[in-house]
Amino acid sequence: MIGQRGRALALATTLGLGIGLAGCAPSSSESGSGSGGEGGETTLTVWSWRVEDQAAYEKIFDAYEAKNEGVTVDFKTFKATEYNKILATGLSGSDGPDVPQVRSYGQLQPTVASGSLVPLDDEVDLEGWDDNAVASAKGTDGSLYSVPLATQTVQMFYNKGLLEEKGLEVPTSWEDFVAMNDALLADEITPIAVGAKDDWTLPIVHEVLAAPRFGGADFQDAVATGEKDFTDPDWVASVQVVGDLKKYMPKDVTGLAATDAQTMFTSEQAAMIPGGSFDLAVLQKGNPEMEIGTFQVPAPPGSPEGSGPTTAGWSDGNFAVSKKSEHQEEAMELVRWMATKEFGQMVADEVKQLSAVPGVTYGDPVLGEMAKSYEANPSPYLLLTDFRYGSPAGTDLLGTGIQEMLLGDKDATQVSSELDKGVKSWFEPTKK
């Protein structure tokens, strides 16, 4: 897919980070960007959209400060849905961060195109890292602009105690999966917690429930070369899988937010929830007594030959250096540290995410389980890794489409056709 990304550079700026929106970024008196303290001390500001990780990052940066005398890291978080505009405004002015947390793949490109980031090719060594992770941190010009933070995966979380209480086991076939859902429903327990009011979650739900049905990584290769597109019968059938499983979701699924679905799961009203590895800390905090497990949903009937259970993944939350930082040397040193195993291990231990740094170990058994599943049967979160390089983005189109399907306004064929038409307005397949 890398070949088509270069052709998408001109389109990347249409993704709309909203540069120039006055008033979104904090004032200089609030941000402390590039401020120097008495005795030659330097304060580096780090911005992020991960409000829920505030305490974890403060602990991580305390460890950095302890080893780097004279440097203070001021970690600031903003609402995720407002972050892109806030960051664009901050980077274009004098009140932005020294080290911004940036998006990945196609969503990184507007920030790169704005000229706001320092290229890192000669500063950071990512040799031996996962190719998918490194691709997430590069511009369409092939240069490296950030250090990957985490490998995110999507999978089915489940309540181990609840399943054991009901005499149910992790399914190893689609028939077992359906039978388990039927048994839970008969016992008046919602089998699968989904919050379809937030349409951005629905491509994740689709990946968890139906990636084997469209063919996972093999389908990615076929779409990349133009051999197949999103009107392919296997893709349409995979969208239909989500519609067929609606009966196992909350009755008011399209009226529930993602946080409502998480609450259903942590309050043990629902047995399972499809989600990302980034959800783990939230779920554990919501019910510390619950024993959470994960599994790969078995392949639905009709899946292409050789297409089995898979764990889709991507990289996200990367860190970069602002060109307008008044302390670029210190900012660069911090970002170099973010590529070390020391930082990666703290991300795993404190943030409870799968670090993008190779060689990290996982004390949390659920994190370890997710890491092993991804290593054993990886596939790309296709619409995020390959179809966010233009507008409309693939994830936006599928999210809205599945929401409309669950509302009864469209069928799987219509959803797939509109996805295909939307991405073809900017996507060009590579040639073999």
From TrEMBL:
Pfam families: SBP_bac_1
Gene3D superfamilies: Periplasmic binding protein-like II
Protein name from the UniProt record: Sugar ABC transporter sugar-binding protein
Organism: Janibacter melonis
